[in-house]
Structure formats: structure tokens, C-alpha cells
């Protein structure tokens, strides 16, 4: 038993679910639900249909090249069962899954960083241009100005004295 | 070759059937309607057609029978002889000859009557002629009843003959009845010949096939032969003799050492010597069967001498027991080897070989030093070879186990698994984990990375920007709410209240306390004091001189701006009034009042257009 991949949306097809279409050149296509099958029959390209994983990978919205993705790969060589090998593999799978998730999240985070940068710049420009809506340009400076005048007067007085 | 045609011979119908079929066909396939008043050539043609059609049918079917049945001269002499033994050559030929004659007779009849029909002058005459023709043909067929029956029986038997290929490798079993020939063939091949304690259980030839050295071998089982001269032999024995005579095979003469078949060893030896001439040019082997009951060593001196003599002549004697399967394989291997050698010899002596031999060349590597380099045969191949030569004992199959254990049997496929660690055989193997196939993973490398830290300075700027955006939105909403009709006046028209100014600036963060001496406060006070005493009159002659009010007051009103003296003012006023005369007369509100109270007055648009214009009638 294996969990197959849906040809259209790249989602998992569990045993007992979905349909399979076999073409005359013996190529099989599995689908997880009728939505995918109907889209396929309408000859839509999954790489152009925005909600599919194929689109997301093709347009660079998700992590595509990474060595942690190389671990999950269909190998057409049968391996004889060995208990320790299997248990080690399950352990390793756990770890790899955790790392893969983190890396995928990091990838998306990095992708959205540029947006944050732009937001930052916008905020700065906003502040520079329209600060007057909140704060008057001389707010808090009156006191300073007064003190300066006082100081100046004092100096004058002193000068006069001299 | 005529081998397979025996099954494809068409069914030979009985004479009655034959006649029925043909006549009904004639009735169906030819036109049926004819009248007296038709033209005579048409009537003649109609009946001639029927006669010819019937003749054609008979002719076709009889020809087919003649071609389907094999000609004894054309087939392999083995089959020819076999057919002779079974069906009698003369009778067969006679029957076919009769059929041929019948065919010719029918043709003649048809020819004659067609000729006669040309002179038929009425429908009745032609009809009678046709009746006569058909009647005669059918009578001819009726006379063939015996032949047809015989041929049908021959056909049925012929199609059931075993398909023996006379040219391929064959082992032939012969001997007295009940010696164990059928048991032998059952052991060696997959054939299932009947084995019974009475003599002449096998009444005809049987074929079995086996494999040896990657080749297919035929094993032919014959009915037992008794010891009397050729002329006295019956059909069953003759079949065996035919096979012996014609098939190029290895002969296995089976003898019964224990004499359970009912013949003594001497009698068996007699028979052997009698049919010796048939064994010329064939590799011969003597099978001493039923050795589980009595071995050769247990025999008397004389009997043992017999066997010794035979061995001395160069014929190998092998003891077997079809019951215990002892020696059966040795017989098989020896016989096969002998036959192969014989056949190869035969081919070598022939002419065709030279064509092939001239093209063959066996290259042997030249020795370069004294080191011996024997061929390396791996152990597995050696074992394999051995099992080829001597059949390994049959493994106990699951079916045997099932039969043994009955209800307790459980199909356990995992017990044959060949794993590194045998005690893991019965483990439950996991296949799927959290939506992933375990089979897709192998030992991975584990690596980790650190996450980045957030930036804190930006937070303040972001907050301020947020506030700005909110204030802006608020302002937009307020200005939309104002809902101003009419022309928008500039800010300078309105007077700014001191209170609102101070409040706004205070909100923006400036300190507005103690601003009594400020410029705007002083001006406000001064303008107010003047404004209270004087009442502003609406007189054009008085040009306002004071400019103590705010900007809007300092500008002269429109009816006084640009007017130099009272005379000009009077004139301007006059112009104004003149312009307004028309409007006032028509009762309009002002310049912009273009309202038409009655867009389509009835008196203008109804009735005949006698006198008047569009504007009045």
C-alpha cells in the first residue's frame, strides 16, 4: 500500500480514495478528488492553476530545491526487511519532517521579507511627509526657544553691563 | 504434413441426409415461380438451372470428401501402415473410389438431361425432365449409403488418433502384455494411461511427452505383443508392430523378471529374438521391470546367464521398478543418450552435414605457459546439472500440507521469507507514517539551522506611521461629512475663532497658554471693538475706510470696488437695474433661472396651424 500523489494538485491519495485514468500510451494519472479530475478533463495546466502545488513550486512561492526534499524519493529497488533499518528510518523521517517544515516556513518568511522592507520604507516616508497631522513642527521647541531668548537677553544685559 | 489434417476432415453425412440437404438447398436457392404462359426459353432456363444447381452441389461436396481424406500414398508410411492396420487399405480405397464414380455419374446425368431439356416444348415436359434428372442423381446417392457410413466412421476414428511425429526423438516401449510398459510411461511423462492387472489393457498407441536436456521427447506406449507369427496377429498387436517398424526411435524392450505377467523368462526371450529384426538400426535397451519383487541376482543361474548373454552382446540391461521408481531415471537417461548419439551419427553420415561443418570452426586458445587453467563451474551450476540428469525428489508442496493438516491448516506465506535475521519474519512491517511512505526514505543526514532575530527600531516608526494614516482618514471622513452646497469659499472668507485655533495647536503639541499678547489675539480685540459701535450700512456711496477687520472686511465690497466716484456708482447701479428688468418682468429668480413653467403649452401644440408662429398663436 502506498499513498500516491494526485497528478493535478499534488495532494495525497490514500488507498481507497480517488480515481485513476489510464491513457492509451499506458501512462496512469491519479486524482484525489473529482475537482482535480474535472480540471484535468478540461485540459487545464496544473502549472497555471493557482491553487495547486505545482503552480506554487513553478512560480517560486515554495521551497523547491533543498537537500531535505531529496530524502523522500521513490526508489524502484526492493529492500529486504530489517527491523533496525526500518526503525531507524522512521526516526530519521521524524527529524527530517521537522527540519523540512522549518525550512519551508523560513523560505516563505524570506520571500515576504522584501514586502516588510517596502513597508518599512513606506512608513518612514509617511512619517517624513505627514508628521504635521499629528505633531506640529515646533512642538516642544517653544520652551527651548524661550530659554534661548532668555539666554540671549541675559547675554545682552551682561554685554551692556560691561 | 498430413498430421493435423486428420482433425479437419469435414463431417461425412449419411446418404439420406446428403440427399435431403442438397434437395432442400436447391429449393431454397433457386427461383421457385414459373408459369405456363412464360416464354419457352424462360421455362427451359428455369428448369435447367435447377438441374445444374443440384449437380453442382453434389459435385462440390463429393469433391471435398475426396480431397479431405488422406491419400495413403501421400502420407508418412507409418500413418499409411497404421491406417491399413486399422481400416483396411483396400476397403478404404474402394469406398473413396465409389464416391468418385458417383460424382462422375451425377455429372453425366446432369449433362444428358440439360441437353434433353433444350428440346422440351412445354412446361410440363421440362418439369418432368427435371424430376427425372434429380431423381436419378438421388438414386445414385442412395446407392452410396454403405461407403458414406464407412467413411464417417473412419473419419471419427482418424481424428482421435494420437499425434505422433514420426521424425522427432521417440522412445518406443514394447514387450509382452502386463509387463509394465504403461506404468513406465506414466512415471516418465504426464500421460495417464490406464494400468490394470488384466492383459491388453492398452489397446492402441499412446503418446507421452517429456523433457530431457532441454529437448522434447516422445514416449510411445504400445499394446502388448504375443509370440506368434506375423500373419496371425490381430489389429491391436499390428499397431505395435507398425510403430516398431516405422518409427525411428530408441526401443525399450520391457521384460518382467518376476514373471507376474504370466510368461516365463524364456518365452519373453523368445519373443525378443522373434522381433529382433524390427530392431535393426535402432538403439536398444532392455528394461528388467518389477525388480522390487525379484532382482536379477535372485534368479536362477540359467536365467542370470540369459541376461549376461544379452549384456555381452552389447545391449544394456537395466533393472527398474515402476512401483518404487528405482532405475527409471537411469533407463530414461541411457535411452535418450543412446538415441541422441545414434541420431547425431546418422546426421554426420548424411550429406547435409558438410554444408554446416564447413562453416563451423572451433577456436581453442593456445597454451602460453604450463599453468593449468581448468574451466570454472560454480557450485550452483554443478548442482543444477545433477538435478537435470537425475530428477530430484519432489518437494512437499503446500497442497500436500493442506491435505495433511485438514482444518488446522493456515496459509503462512511468511515462512519461506529469506531475511537477514530470520526471527524478524513475522514482524508487522509499517508502510505509512503521517502521510508519507516509509519506502521512500532511507537513512538521512540530520542537519539544523538557526532562525533570525526581529528588528526593534522600526517599531516606533511603524507606530507613528499608523497614527498618521488614522488621522488622515479621519480628516477625509470629516470633509466628506460637511456636505457643502454651492461654491466652495476659500479659507480666508471665514473668521477663525481664537478658541478653535488654540485648541487645534494644543492638540498638535504646542503650548498655547498665555497667548493674550499674541498678534492674533490683539487684532481680534481691536476689530471687535470697532465693529460693535458701528453698524454696517448698505450704502454704495460710503466707501469703507477702516481696515480693522480681518482680511475679508479689508477688501471693498463688490459694488464699490473699481468705482471711482458717485456718478460712476449711479451709472453702474442703473446698468444693474436695467439688466434685471427683463428678468423681474418674467418673474425669474435670477440669471440662472431658466425654468420653463409650461414646456408644451396646449394652445401652441393643438389644433390647426392657422395663423401664428411657434411662439404664439
Automatic annotation (TrEMBL), chain A:
Tagged with keyword tRNA processing: no
Major location category of this protein: nucleus
Organism from which the protein derives: Oncorhynchus mykiss
Domain TRASH: 6-44
Cited Pfam families: Ribosomal_L24e
Family in the record: Belongs to the eukaryotic ribosomal protein eL24 family.
Protein name per Swiss-Prot or TrEMBL: Probable ribosome biogenesis protein RLP24
Sorted UniProt keywords: Nucleus, Ribosome biogenesis
One of the record's GO molecular function terms: structural constituent of ribosome
Domain of life of the native organism: Eukaryota
TrEMBL record, chain B:
Cellular compartment(s): Nucleus, Nucleolus
Keyword GTP-binding tagged: yes
UniProt GO cellular component terms: nucleolus
Biased composition (Basic and acidic residues): 556-568, 579-601
Residue stretches in coiled coil: 447-474
Regions of compositional bias (Polar residues) in chain numbering: 543-554
MF term (GO), any: GTP binding
Superkingdom assignment: Eukaryota
Annotated segments matching region Disordered: 507-617
Cross-referenced Gene3D superfamilies: 1.20.120.1190, P-loop containing nucleotide triphosphate hydrolases
Protein's GO biological process: ribosome biogenesis
Keywords: Coiled coil, GTP-binding, Nucleotide-binding, Nucleus, Ribosome biogenesis
Entries under Pfam families matching the protein: NOG1 (PF06858), NOG1_N (PF17835), NOGCT (PF08155)
Biased composition range(s): Basic residues: 525-538, 602-611
Residues spanning the membrane: none
Record keyword Signal present: no
All residue ranges annotated as the OBG-type G domain in the record: 169-340
Similarity-based family: Belongs to the TRAFAC class OBG-HflX-like GTPase superfamily. OBG GTPase family. NOG subfamily.
NCBIfam families: small_GTP
Function: Involved in the biogenesis of the 60S ribosomal subunit.
Subunit structure: Associates with pre-60S ribosomal particles. Interacts with MINAS-60 (product of an alternative open reading frame of RBM10).
Protein name as annotated: Nucleolar GTP-binding protein 1
Annotated gene: gtpbp4
Amino acid at each position: 500500500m502506498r499513498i500516491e500523489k494526485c497528478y493535478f494538485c499534488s495532494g495525497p491519495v490514500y488507498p481507497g480514495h480517488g480515481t485513476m485514468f489510464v491513457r492509451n500510451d499506458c501512462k496512469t494519472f491519479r486524482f484525489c478528488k473529482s475537482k482535480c479530475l474535472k480540471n484535468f478533463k478540461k485540459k487545464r495546466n496544473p502549472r497555471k492553476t493557482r491553487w495547486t502545488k505545482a503552480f506554487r513550486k513553478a512560480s517560486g512561492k515554495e521551497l523547491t530545491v533543498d537537500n531535505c526534499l531529496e530524502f523522500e524519493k521513490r526508489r524502484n529497488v526492493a529492500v529486504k526487511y530489517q527491523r533496525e533499518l526500518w526503525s531507524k528510518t522512521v526516526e530519521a523521517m521524524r527529524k527530517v519532517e521537522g527540519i523540512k517544515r522549518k525550512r519551508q516556513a523560513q523560505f516563505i518568511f524570506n520571500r515576504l521579507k522584501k514586502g516588510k522592507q517596502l513597508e518599512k520604507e513606506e512608513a518612514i516616508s509617511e512619517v517624513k511627509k505627514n508628521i504635521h497631522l499629528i505633531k506640529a513642527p515646533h512642538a516642544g521647541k517653544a520652551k527651548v526657544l524661550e530659554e534661548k531668548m532668555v539666554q540671549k537677553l541675559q547675554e545682552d544685559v551682561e554685554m551692556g553691563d560691561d | 504434413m498430413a498430421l493435423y489434417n486428420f482433425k479437419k476432415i469435414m463431417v461425412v453425412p449419411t446418404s439420406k441426409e446428403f440427399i435431403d440437404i442438397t434437395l432442400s438447398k436447391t429449393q431454397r436457392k433457386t427461383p421457385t415461380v414459373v408459369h405456363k404462359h412464360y416464354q419457352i426459353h424462360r421455362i427451359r432456363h428455369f428448369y435447367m438451372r435447377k438441374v445444374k444447381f443440384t449437380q453442382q452441389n453434389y459435385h462440390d461436396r463429393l469433391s471435398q470428401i475426396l480431397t479431405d481424406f488422406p491419400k495413403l500414398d501421400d502420407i508418412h508410411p507409418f500413418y499409411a501402415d497404421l491406417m491399413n492396420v486399422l481400416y483396411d487399405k483396400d476397403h478404404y480405397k474402394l469406398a473413396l473410389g465409389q464416391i468418385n464414380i458417383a460424382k462422375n455419374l451425377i455429372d453425366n446425368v446432369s449433362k444428358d438431361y440439360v441437353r434433353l431439356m433444350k428440346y422440351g416444348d412445354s412446361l410440363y415436359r421440362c418439369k418432368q425432365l427435371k424430376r427425372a434428372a434429380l431423381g436419378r442423381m438421388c438414386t445414385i446417392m442412395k446407392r452410396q449409403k454403405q461407403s458414406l457410413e464407412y467413411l464417417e466412421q473412419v473419419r471419427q476414428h482418424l481424428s482421435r488418433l494420437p499425434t505422433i511425429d514420426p521424425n522427432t526423438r521417440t522412445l518406443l516401449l514394447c514387450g509382452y502384455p502386463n509387463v509394465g510398459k504403461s506404468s513406465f510411461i506414466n512415471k516418465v511423462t504426464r500421460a495417464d494411461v490406464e494400468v490394470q492387472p488384466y492383459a491388453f489393457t492398452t489397446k492402441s498407441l499412446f503418446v507421452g511427452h517429456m523433457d530431457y536436456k532441454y529437448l522434447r521427447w516422445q514416449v510411445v506406449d504400445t499394446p502388448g505383443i504375443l509370440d506368434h507369427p506375423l500373419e496371425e496377429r490381430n489389429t491391436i498387436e499390428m499397431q505395435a508392430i507398425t510403430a516398431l517398424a516405422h518409427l525411428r526411435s530408441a526401443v525399450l524392450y520391457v521384460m518382467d523378471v518376476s514373471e507376474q505377467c504370466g510368461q516365463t523368462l524364456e518365452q519373453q526371450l523368445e519373443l525378443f529374438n522373434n522381433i529382433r529384426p524390427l530392431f535393426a538400426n535402432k538403439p536398444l535397451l532392455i528394461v528388467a521391470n518389477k525388480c522390487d519383487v525379484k532382482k536379477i541376482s535372485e534368479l536362477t543361474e540359467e536365467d542370470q546367464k540369459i541376461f549376461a548373454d544379452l549384456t555381452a552382446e552389447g545391449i544394456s540391461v537395466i533393472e527398474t521398478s515402476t512401483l518404487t521408481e528405482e532405475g527409471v531415471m537411469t533407463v530414461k537417461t541411457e535411452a535418450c543418450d543412446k538415441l541422441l548419439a545414434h541420431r547425431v551419427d546418422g546426421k554426420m553420415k548424411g550429406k547435409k552435414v558438410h554444408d554446416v561443418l564447413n562453416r563451423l570452426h572451433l577456436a581453442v586458445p593456445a597454451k602460453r605457459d604450463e599453468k593449468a587453467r581448468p574451466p570454472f563451474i560454480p557450485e550452483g551450476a554443478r548442482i543444477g546439472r545433477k538435478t537435470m540428469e537425475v530428477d530430484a525428489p519432489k518437494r512437499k508442496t503446500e497442497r500436500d500440507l493442506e491435505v495433511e493438516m485438514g482444518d488446522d491448516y493456515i496459509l503462512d506465506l511468511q515462512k519461506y521469507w529469506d531475511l537477514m535475521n530470520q526471527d524478524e519474519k513475522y514482524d508487522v512491517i509499517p508502510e505509512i507514517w503521517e502521510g508519507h511512505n516509509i519506502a521512500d526514505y532511507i537513512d538521512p543526514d540530520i542537519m539544523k539551522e538557526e532562525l533570525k532575530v526581529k528588528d526593534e527600531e522600526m517599531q516606533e516608526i511603524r507606530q507613528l506611521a499608523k497614527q498618521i494614516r488614522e488621522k488622515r482618514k479621519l480628516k477625509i471622513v470629516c470633509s466628506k461629512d460637511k456636505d457643502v452646497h454651492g461654491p466652495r469659499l476659500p479659507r480666508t472668507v471665514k473668521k477663525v475663532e481664537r478658541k478653535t485655533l488654540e485648541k487645534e495647536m494644543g492638540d498638535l503639541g504646542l503650548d498655547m497658554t498665555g497667548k493674550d499678547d499674541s498678534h492674533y489675539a490683539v487684532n481680534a480685540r481691536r476689530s471687535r471693538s470697532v465693529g460693535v459701535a458701528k453698524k454696517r450700512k448698505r450704502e454704495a456711496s460710503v466707501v469703507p475706510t477702516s481696515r480693522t477687520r480681518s482680511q475679508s472686511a479689508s477688501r471693498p465690497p463688490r459694488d464699490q470696488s473699481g468705482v471711482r466716484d458717485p456718478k460712476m456708482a449711479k451709472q453702474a447701479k442703473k446698468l444693474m437695474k436695467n439688466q434685471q428688468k427683463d428678468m423681474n418682468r418674467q418673474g425669474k429668480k435670477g440669471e440662472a433661472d431658466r425654468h420653463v413653467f409650461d414646456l408644451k403649452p396646449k394652445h401652441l401644440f393643438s389644433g390647426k396651424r392657422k395663423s401664428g408662429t411657434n411662439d404664439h398663436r
